[in-house]
Amino acid sequence: MIKCPFCEAKQVDNTIFCSECGVYLLEDERRGTEALDFDEMDWGDENEEPQAVEVKPENNLQQSIHLKIGDGIREIEASLAKAIHLGRLDPASDVFPEVDLSDESGLEKGVSRRHARIIKRDETVVVEDLGSINGTFVNGKRLAPYLPETLNDGDQLQLGNLVIEIGMG
Amino acid sequence: MGLLNKVADINKSPAFNLDVRQSHKYLSTSTEEQALYLLVKMTHASDLRPLRLPLNLCLVLDRSTSMRGARLQNVKQGVQQIIDDLEPDDALSVVLFSDRAKVLLPSEKNIQKSRLKSVISAIQSSGGTEMLQGLVAGIEQLRTHRTMTSINHLMFITDGQTYGDEAGCLEQAQLANASQITLTTMGIGEDWNETLLEKMAVASGGTSLYIDSPREIRQAFQTSMDALTSVVARGVSMTVDTASGIRLENIYMMTPYISVLEHQASRLLLGPLACDTEKTMLMEFRVRAEVAQTYPDSIQIHIEGDLPEQTNYCSRLSKQITVEFSKKPSRNVTIPSDIITALGKLAIFKLQEKTMIDLEQGEVTTATQRLETMATRLLNIGETELARSALLEAGRLARTGNLSAEGRKKIRYGTRSLSMLPKEIYRD
C-alpha cells in the first residue's frame, strides 16, 4: 500500500496516478531543458526569403495537419479539432503533449517540455511558441513567444534544433 | 450460434494486430496487492480493404417541440445528405418520436431518393420526448433487412430528457448489441441525459456524440456514415482471461474517446472496425503475487471479428502476457511513455467521473474540491478552455450546490476527448 503525498489517499502498490486526486505518484526522474549553445544552433536556410504571412484559400477547410519529424522516420497526422501541443512528456509537471518529442532526442535538441502549440484560429492554422528556452522558428524566422504565426503547406517548423516539416491538404 | 458459419484462421496470416504494452515487467513477490496496467492497441492488417457492405440503417429522430427551428432544419439536411449517399442495396428506415413513436419510412431498399427527401423536409415538430418507443420501433425496423453481411446501425438523435424509461432504453441497447446492431447516440444542446446516451452507445459497441450547435449536426451524420461505409471487420469482440490471483479491475476504451467498458460479461462486444482506425484499450489489473506467480501465461487476450472481404470468415487472434515476479523489482522502472500519457489523461477523466458520483451522493464540498483540482490539472496540460469551464462550474457548485446542464456536458465530453492523439503514420 502506498500513500498519495498530495491527498493522502491510500493506493495499491505500483499505482501510477492517484485514484482520488489524479496526481503522478512516481519519482520525477526527467530532466529539464538546457539552453543550447548559440553557435551550435541550426538556424535553417538563411538565404531563403521568409514567406509572406497570408492565408492560402485551401488552408480554410483544413481538418488535420501532417508532421514529418526530424529525419523523417516519424510522421504523424494530427487533428486540428483541438490544440496540438508539442514538447516532451513530463507527468510529474502535468505535461502531456499530444506530440511527445522525447524519442526524437528532444532533450538533446533543446525541446522544452511545453514548447509550442499548433491551433486552428479563425480558419487559419497557426503555431505559437509557449515561452520555450530555445525558441520556435518558422522557415528560419524565430517567433516571439506567445505571438501566433501562420503555418502553410511545406513550411519548416523548428523547435530548438529539431526540424519538423509541415504538410497540409 | 452466431449469424455466420465461422471458420477459424489457423493457416492464414492474422487479419488483426494486437500491440500490448505492459506497465511493469516485474512485479514484487510481496503479499501486498499490486496494480498492473496494459495498453492494448488493436489494428487491422494493412492488406485488408474496406468493403462497402449493404447498409441496414435506421434513423430515429426526435421531433419534440424543442427541436423546432435550426435543430430540426439541420437534422433534415443531415438526413437528406445520408439519403444522397445511399446505394440501391442499402436499406433505410426513419422513425420519428415525441410523445409517441411513428414509423415515417418502413425499412426499404431501392429508395426513391427525391420523394423521400421531400417527405423528410415536411417533418414538423411537436410534443415531448419519449425515447424508449422510438428506440424500440427503430430496432424493430432494422430486423427487416438484417442479413449475414449487412452493417446494422441505428442513429439516434435527441435534444431532450426522457423520464421513467431509462432502464428500458439501456436494455434495448444491449439487445441491439446481441443482434449485431450498433448505435450512434447524438445529443443536441444542453437538456439531455449524457450518462444515458453514452451508456446506450457503449452497450451497443457504438459511440455517443455531443452536439454543441445545430451547425455540427450535418458533420456528425457525415462522420458516422464515413465509418459505416468503410468497414474492414464487423462484430469485433474481445475476451480477457486471467489466471488466479489476477483480477481485471477496469477497462477503458481510449479511442476515439475515453469510455468505460462494462466487463462483467466475459466477452466485450466492440462493434465494427472501420478502415485505418484502431481500438485502443487501457486495462487495469490487481495482482496477488502469492497466487499468481505459479502461472506462466498470466493474462490472455483474445479478439475475433468477421471479415466481410472473405465471406463467412471469422478471424481470431490471441495474445499471452507473461507477468514475472521478482523478490526486489527495481524501483527505477521505466514505464512506457504511451502508458503514462494514456493514464495521465485517464486520471483527469476519472476526476470528472468521481465529481459526478460525489454530486449524486450529495457531497457538494468534495465535488467542488475535486472540480478545482481537475481545473488545475487541465490548466497545467494546456487545456485552458476546458479548465475555465471546470473552474466556472466549481464556483457555481460552491454557490448553488449544482452544476449547469451545459457545464456538465462540456466537462464530460471535454475530458473524454483528452485521449485524442495524433495518428502515427507507418510506412513500409
- Outline of chain A: elongated
Given helix and strand content, the structural type of chain A is mainly beta
Hey, roughly how much beta strand do the residues of chain A contain? 25-35%
Strand order of the largest sheet of chain A: 4-3-13-12-9-10
* N-to-C span of chain A: 52 Å
* Oligomeric description of these chains: heterodimer
CATH architecture of the largest domain in chain A: Sandwich
Please provide the ordered H/E string of secondary-structure elements of chain B: EEEEHEEHHEHEHEHEEEEEHEEEHHHHE
Helix content of chain A: under 10%
Question: In this structure, how is the largest beta sheet of chain A organized?
Answer: 6 strands, antiparallel
Our count of helices of chain B gives: 11
Order of helices and strands of chain A: EEEEEEEEEEEEE
Largest interface: A-B, 42 and 44 residues
The percent range for helix content of chain B is 25-40%
What percentage of the residues of chain B does DSSP assign to strands (E)? Answer: 25-35%
Tag the structure with descriptive keywords.
heterodimer, A: 169 residues, mainly beta, Tumour Suppressor Smad4, 2 domains, 6-stranded antiparallel sheet, 31% strand, B: 428 residues, alpha/beta, Immunoglobulin-like, Rossmann fold, 3 domains, 6-stranded mixed sheet, 5-stranded antiparallel sheet, 18 strands, globular
